């Protein structure tokens, strides 16, 4: 059993005339969605209401960011029990069943490999790198970036079969974040769009270790310009060796955490981006986290609807145009003149 806040607590707030008008408009739009879909409470319905409000020029709150923080807050006097329906729990793995699958090199270091810098050195050397050279990153380096941010670290047995721990933490072990990669320059890999396949599937469609840690090829071709345009015309997305994109499958966490889940999506993506940043430094690579993008354009590039699954965060990764000479050398982290 899980405890969530009473979703009606916001009604107790003092209602100004403008707020009443906003609520009436929202209620009318909710009725329109209900009439068109015949059901309440779907994740997509909420997004369609919000989108319709935005297109109509109406707002539910003068400061939607602040409203989000307030309306997803836990308060001791408004908590109530929430019974989980385990039969309706969404799956936590996504597969492109008809996409070509490309195996990745084992991320573990070889016995004769030169040791990577220790954790504290990587933390001290991490910078947001925005200037990349033309040298591609290797497939092994890409493999390690994926494993360090989203990969399987060990397995365990449940009443329903085998399941896995992953590299980055997640709220409630629900893993709502999916990883996509736009490849610009990676050795032995065609440019294009790929989805990270965390686990394999057995004949009963249960997750297994066999077939895990692989890429599913969704599109091929040079997507650098399209990726940069969707990222507010930031050319680093075209010049990087690869761009990692993290999306949220909303139903996975909403199933348990309701509205609070929308906080956790961003936190989970942030955990993964942080681990990727350190894994990049450990391999002599640079990365730049990106939260400035046109959501609808990125969703379209990925082929997702923005309603059941939507973009959360991105990181451009590549080989720095100039290596760090010291921990204080920040010349190549500045924004280039473009």
Report the CATH C-level class of the largest domain. Answer: Alpha Beta
Distance between the termini: 54 Å
Total helical elements:
10
Mean pLDDT: 83
Sequence of secondary-structure elements: EHHHEEHHEEEEEEEHHEHHEHE
Q: Report the helical percentage.
A: 25-40%
CATH superfamily of the largest domain: NADH Oxidase
What is the overall silhouette?
globular
The CATH architecture of the largest domain can be named as 3-Layer(aba) Sandwich
Describe the main β-sheet briefly.
Answer: 7 strands, antiparallel
Secondary structure category: alpha+beta
List how many beta strands DSSP finds: 13
What is the percentage of strand-forming residues? 15-25%
Radius of gyration: 22 Å
Examine the coordinates and then state which fold CATH places here, giving the name of the CATH topology of the largest domain: NADH Oxidase
Can you tell me the residue ranges where pLDDT is under 50 for at least 5 consecutive residues? 6-18, 326-332
Main sheet strand line-up: 3-10-7-6-11-13-12
Q: Domains counted in the coordinates: how many?
A: 2
